[in-house]
Description:
By secondary structure, the chain is an alpha+beta fold. It is built from 13 helices and 17 strands.
Amino acid sequence: MKSILSAPINIIKADIGTDINSPRRYNLLRRKIVSLMALVTLIPLLSLAGLNYYEHQNTMAAEIQAPLRALVGKAKHSFELFLAERTSAVSFIASAYSFDELSDDANLQRIFQVMRREFTGFVDLGLIDVAGNQLSYAGPYDLKGRNYTEQPWFHQVQFKGTYVSDVFLGFRKFPHVVIAVRHTTESGRSWILRATLDTMHFDRIISAMGLEPGSDAFLVNRSGILQTESRRYGKVLDILPFDLPSTGFESNVQSIRDQKGQDNFIASAFIANTDFALVAVKPKPTAFSTWYTVRLDLLFIFVSSVILIFLAVYRVTSLLISRLQESDEQRMGAIHQMEHSQKLSSIGRLAAGVAHEINNPLAIINEKAGLMRDIMNLRPDFPDKDKFGRQIEAILRSVDRCRGITHRMLSFAKRMDVKIEVLDVNTVLVETLGFLEREAQYRNVELKRELAHNLPQIPTDHGQIQQVFLNILNNALAAVPDGGQIVIRSWDESEDFIGVSVQDNGCGMSEETAKNMFEPFFTTKKEKGTGLGMSITYGIVKRLGGEIQVKTKLNEGTTMTILLPKRSVEG
Ligand code: ADP
Ligand code: MG
């Protein structure tokens, strides 16, 4: 009952489903706007999030890499210092003592004792001549008399002057390195001083790096053989299971995937004057653990903002579109109404003219036919009197019928002054029903009244409202079969309107008929109908400030509903 307040033509249109403002058009528009707005808002968000992600990851990586690089740099320095000290000590002894002093075992033993006291890590000390013979030896092994000419390190020291060996397992299966120094006197005599170092100190330097759990550090030589024990890649002299990344003397960091498929940051640097590189390994997952949680948070924020934006865009667009649709519909309704009333007024004028023109000849026909009948009646010997009498009666009946039509055309056309008086609509309804009761009774049609007792009186025009009721009731009566039912209702609709409805269980209307029923001269009743009833009704109801609505279904019936204003309106 609520939608009744919008334009009646519209309601009919909606009821019978021929909508020109197709919903598909609005859906398309909605889709377009939503995708455009989503695109415009999401693209900057997406690029910002991407940039942020990338930058943050880079910063994180840099922040992880810098300490690792510094750590390796520092430890490398400790190694270099350690080895340089030891090498200078050996070098010093080689040059501070004469060949004779060094070749004397007791002397060498004494020097070795002093050296051990000053420098930790030395295991033994020995003198070797240019021919490679061990001349004297201080230490735990019995190496005296050995010859080293065949050994590669011997050639290296001859050639380079100092030499630090790779780690090897000595006779006691402890890892060692050898430091050898060649000394040449001014007279051209050369000898080689060779000391063995325990690599325990290497492990100490590495553990002093203070590695986090999961991280690893070790020394490895150029051939990839571990020189100290690694937590993850094996014992001393095992082969490193992956290739060492390119390494220089400056500590640098690279990403590498090890043999187990784990991603690591690797910092490495060569230790000066040796074959060793110091390597520190930090697994990426531990390094990035904070980053991963941050990333998850970021993802969450990103996804929820995308959803939020999308929802907001969708809501706003839907709202806009439905407003647009509403206003479009209102506009269409107004246009239809205007068209309709314009048509009514021009047809009205035409009808008035035609009715007027026809009334005169009709009067003449009526008069002449009457005259003919009188003349005939005056002459008792008139031949075929009965036959003529019937024809004249037919003429007079038709004239009557024509008069009825012209009369209605005139009343349709007349812009009658509205005489407003406050009256009870129920009374008018009962009065109007009185005109039809005889026919209803004759055809056994039930006229059922469901009238509201508390119906307020309204200011309206008695004659016009009666005509409205009469037109609607006449149509209902024409629609129902003999024995049908018509229900007449009245009720208090709202603060502003009262409602009256006439429901019949008659033939109903097709979509086409319902669409056209308010058009002047539209009728489905052939010569029995004028097609003016509903257009007159429509005009009156509008003039009185009311609304009219039709609900109908073919072969089931029709309900005509009128809303009439409680307060009088202008015009
Ligand atoms: P008329 O009654 O002279 O045909 P109207 O303007 O009163 O003209 O009605 C127009 C048309 O609307 C009718 O011819 C009929 O087809 C249809 N109509 C109106 N009211 C009803 C109704 N209650 N049941 C079925 N059809 C109706
Ligand atoms: Mg009618």
